Amino acid sequence: MENTVMYNLVLLAARPPEWTHERFITWWRGDHAELTRRLPGLRSWRHTEIDAALEPRSEGWDGMSVLGFDSPEDLSKALASAEWADAVAQVGDMKGRRIAVMGHEAEMFTA
User: Fold this and answer.
1) In 3D, which of 10, 4, 96 has the Cα closest to residue 46?
2) What gap in Å lies between CA 62 and CA 94, rounded to an integer?
3) Which helix (H) or strand (E) holds 32?
4) Where does the EthD domain start and stop, copy by copy (predicted)?
5) pLDDT tens, the chain, 111 aa long
6) DSSP per-residue letters across 46-107
7) What is the rounded CA–CA span in Å between residue 109 and residue 63?
8) Model pTM score
9) Contact call for residues 14 and 91 (beta carbons, < 8 A)
10) Strand, helix or coil at 91?
11) 3-class SS at 1?
């Protein structure tokens, strides 16, 4: 049986062309994390450093973040906050790529 746990913002990102993978992950988990942790209503945050793609069409990504909130309304408040504006400003015109999607999490299995 499904158990809805969080409302998540999922970000899949690729580094700027002039950066190494290592530099991007260090920045994401360091300087950028300092701003991200301050988002109002943030309940959880998982980050995956991508080191391999299953197939060619999935190549080209460096990392994925899953930011968990209690509700869509809490995520909306975070996205309207000064803290989010600070994080976006820090990214600036970095020229990396990203996919940003949001939705309800359902825990499907846990061991």
Assistant:
1) 10
2) 14
3) helix 31-36
4) 17-88
5) 455 679 999 999 999 999 999 999 999 999 999 999 999 999 999 999 999 999 999 999 999 999 999 999 999 999 999 999 999 999 988 888 999 999 999 988 889
6) EEEE----SSGGG-S--EEEEEEESSHHHHHHHHTSHHHHHHHHHHTT---EEEEEEEEEEE
7) 23
8) 0.90
9) no
10) helix
11) coil
